[in-house]
Structures are given as C-alpha cells and as structure tokens.
Amino acid sequence: MYTFSDVVFPGHKNQNDKILVEGNKADMIISFYADPEIESLLYPIFEKQEFKVGDMQGKVAFKVENFEKIEEPDLTKGGSYTFRCISPMLVSENNKVDGPFHSPDQKDFDKIFFKSLMFKYANLVKFMAIDPGKGLPNLKELEFKLIGKPRPKIVKIKSDTPHQKSVKGFVFDFNLKAPEELLKIGYNGGFGDFNHLGFGCCELKQ
Question: Residue ranges of the domains in the chain?
Fold first, then answer.
C-alpha cells in the first residue's frame, strides 16, 4: 500500500499539457504503509536509481541523488487533523478507473471517502495480519470537513498505450477526525482510490 506526490520542479513553465523544466533538480515524496523492517530494503532500491519521465513526444532523464526519511507525525493525540493534497485525490463509489469520481464539495462525499478507508483497513487485517486491537472505536465521531474550494486537475494515466485515459482528480485541504489507525492508513498509504498510481498523497498541514 503506497502512494507518491506530484513531482515538484523548482523552476518550470506550463505549456499546453507539457512542463518545460528550467532547473536540473526535482523533488517528490513516496509514502508507504509498511512494516518498519521493510524500511532498510528501500534504500538500495532507490539509491542512485536512474529513470526517465515523459511520453512519446519527449522524455527527461533523472537520477536519484538523495533519498531521506521524513518523520511520521504524531497522530495519536486524538481530535482532528488538517491535511493538504500534494497529488490529486480520486474518490469513486465503485473503485473503477472510469469513475465517476466525486468532488469533495459534493453531497455524501464524506461517506464514500470513509468507505474507502474502511475497505483498506479490512484488507490490512485480512491479508497483512495486522493486529486490529480493539477494532476501530468511536466510528460515530468520523468527520470530514472540506477547507476552501477544491481545484480540479486532469491527469493522463497509461499514457501512449491503448488503455490511455484522462481522469479528473481534485486538490484541496481538509480537516479529518477519525481513529488513529485510519489516519495512519490514509497518511502513509494514501486517501481515496488508485493510490498506487500517485493519487491521494497528502501531508499534514501545519
């Protein structure tokens, strides 16, 4: 269970559906919901890794120069937390890539949002044998609150293949009240759907 943020270029310009990169560095966040033992295996995988980003019309070569751990915030204090999307979030009732995907300002968005988190929790208990402890207490206190106006963002997936598709996600800030385990699943593995494609990566807003 993982997700990753948008790639951040310190110097760039947008031109139609392309990004003109002016600098020679970029940053991104990769986030995993995994056992601590896996951490030591990640460094050899990413260290000095070389790869290309782009499509059939143009590619840019990259090399990983630095790979560092970001300390996980304390989500055990209870109450509510404010998150910021650092990649678009997709939330769908049927968990299918053809949607429809819901905007966070739509009615009943919160119910679909929490349904996705609960589904991930159930799969973790079933397939990863995590200790459910006392389960998920205080589910009646679940609360999602949108902050500001969501910004739509169109993203192409499976580009330059017969299965290419454009999907519309949303970037926004939100306040969330939920049990600790659900907060950790969303923060580390991504909120919403299709996190493994780089959707739903969020950071805690200070």
Answer: 2-63, 81-204
Give pLDDT tens digits along the chain (206 positions): 899 999 888 877 777 777 787 778 889 999 998 877 777 788 888 888 898 887 777 788 889 998 888 888 988 876 799 999 999 999 988 777 777 889 999 999 999 999 999 999 888 887 766 665 556 666 778 999 999 999 999 888 877 778 788 889 999 999 999 988 899 999 999 999 999 999 999 999 87
* Burial class, 19, CB count within 10 angstroms (exposed 0-12 / middle 13-18 / buried 19+): middle
d(CA 195, CA 188): 10
Kindly report the pTM of this predicted structure. 0.87
User: How far apart are the C-alpha atoms of 167 and 203, rounded to whole Å?
Assistant: 22
At 46, list the tokens: 């990413």
Query: Domain 81-204 belongs to what architecture?
Result: 2-Layer Sandwich (3.30)
Q: What is the 3-state secondary structure (H, E, C) of 103-172?
A: CCCCCCHHHHHHHHHHHHHHHHHHHCCCCCCCCCCCHHHCEEEEEEEEEEEEEEECCCCCCCEEEEEEEE
**In whole angstroms, what is the distance from residue 159 CA to residue 166 CA?**
9
Token pair listed for 72: 């996980």
